[in-house]
Amino acid sequence: MNVRILSQLLRLTFPVALFTLMPFVSASAAPFSPITQSGVFSTDDAHGLVAFSLASDQTLYFYTTSYAGGLNADGGTAASGGFDPIVTLFDSTNTYVAYNDDDTLNYNRPKNGTVNSFDSYLAQKLTAGNYTLVVTQFDSTAAVGSNINDPFSEDGNPNFTSIFASGRTGMFYDSNGNQNTGSYTVNVSAAPPAVPEASTTLSLGLLLALGLGGLIVTARSRHAMAK
């Protein structure tokens, strides 16, 4: 075949082949942008809502940092002292998906001598769609299979945590009888929460102290021998 004719055929067929393949190439979904939301309850039975959309199927992490304090998904740090939270997730039909009360993985440091932090932590594999995360105070829970518009267990009881207060008045008591503030901070992220490395810092400090002590002892020994 003449080289000029072959060149013309390739010039005509290549764009057609490329156009035919293009429908099979899909752009990857945009990454999920982390959310950090803070608020203040005025009563024990208040609700905090976080609405978000998911463009593709993936696992998301939902966690609070306001009870014990900790690192947030936006890079900031939450102070400790907030109430004992619960997080409950609902889907686009407002139907219950999952919930968490206390973090059993101990990603966050304990407070007030508790075995596990009272902050909440939930990892959930989700399909693309719209969701709403609801923050409530322990022990105001939604029933499994319920709708987001159904009442939670303590709705209408504005100071229900007083049962933990041993006769004291007020709100925002945890189950250990500690009174906290009405503050909450909740995070929604495609990455698991960062863990503060307090123990690593302590270990490094201890090693440095031991090393410095060893140098002092060695120096004194050499000084004594020189005499």
Question: What does this entry look like structurally?
Answer:
This protein has one domain (33-222): Jelly Rolls, CATH 2.60.120. It has a 4-stranded antiparallel β-sheet with strand order 1-10-3-8, with no helix packed on it. The chain is built from 2 helices and 10 strands. It has helices at 3-21, 198-226; strands spanning 35-40, 48-54, 58-64, 70-71, 77-78, 85-90, 96-100, 121-126, 129-137, 183-189. The chain is 21% helix and 25% strand. The chain is globular and about 55 Å long.
For the largest beta-sheet, the strand count, sense and barrel status come to: 4 strands, antiparallel
The gyration radius over C-alpha positions equals 28 Å
Structural domain count: 1
Shape: globular
Helix percent band: 10-25%
Secondary structure category:
alpha+beta
CATH fold title: Jelly Rolls
Low-confidence stretches: 14-26, 198-207, 215-219
The count of β-strands is: 10
Count of alpha and pi helical runs: 2
What is the element string, with H for helices and E for strands?
A: HEEEEEEEEEEH
Average pLDDT, to the nearest integer?
80
Strand order within the widest beta sheet: 1-10-3-8
End-to-end distance, in Å? 102 Å
Concise account of the structure shown:
With 227 residues, this protein is of the alpha+beta class. The chain has helices at 3-21, 198-226; strands at residues 35-40, 48-54, 58-64, 70-71, 77-78, 85-90, 96-100, 121-126, 129-137, 183-189.
